[in-house]
Amino acid sequence: MTWVSTTSCASIPSSTLRTCRRSPSTSWFKYIIGIGVGAGAYVLAKFALIFPDLVEGLVLMNIDPNGKGWIDWAATKLSGLTSTLPDTVLSHLFSQEELVSNTELVQSYRQQIGNVVNQANLQLFWNMYNSRRDLDINRPGTVPNAKTLRCPVMLVVGDNAPAEDGVVECNSKLDPTTTTFLKMADSGGLPQVTQPGKLTEAFKYFLQGMGYMPSASMTRLARSRTASLTSASSVDGSRPQACTHSESSEGLGQVNHTMEVSC
What is the rounded distance in angstroms from the CA atom of residue 53 to the CA atom of residue 238? Predict the structure, then answer.
C-alpha cells in the first residue's frame, strides 16, 4: 500500500498517469490511500475514476466535483477586476468571518501567497483550476450506469467554509454505504490546519473501518447517522476488505452505512 497526499497546489504528474494507463500492474505502486485538499482532492478523485482498482480509499477535503459554468466564469472575471490574485485565492481558502477577523493564520497565508509563491505560476494554476470539468459522478441507482467512486471515501469540510456547498453536493453523489461525511465545527476553511488533532482521530477511525490499525486507541467522536444501516458483504482476496462501522454496531458483524461525523 502507498500513501499519496496532494495539496491544493499539487497534482499527480501526467507521466505517472500515462505509465499507469499503459500498464497499471507494473507501475510503481499496487494501490493507494489518497489524501487531497482542494484541487488535490479533485485530482485524486479523477485518478480513482480512471483507475478504480488502484485506489484503496480516499480522504477528500474541500473538494468541488463541479466544473465552472458561465456564471461562475463571469464572477471570476469580475472579482479579478476588483481584487488582487492573493485576495482571490484567500477568499477561496477562508470563510468571510476568518477574513474579516484577519486571524494570524490568514495573515500568514497572505504573506506566503503574496511574497513567496511565484505569481505567474499561481495565476496559471488558478486559471487551470477554474477551467476544470465536472467529475460527472452520480449516486448508484439514480441513473443508469452511474459513474461513481468505488472505494471508501471520507469527505471533510469545515463548518461555513467556502467549499462547504461543493462537499455537501459531492456527498449526495457518492455511494452512501461507503462514504463518511465529516463536517468540523469551528475549524474554518482549513480544518487540517486549525483542527489537526480531531482530523487525525477521524482519519484513524476511517482507516480502522477499512481494516487497518485495529489496535489503535480511539477517543469517542460525536456521531449521527444520516441513513439507516445497510448490511453488506464482499470478499476480495487481493486487497483488504473495506467496511465502515460505528461503535454501536461493534460485535454485530460488518455493517456499512452513511455516517455524518460532527466534532
Answer: 11
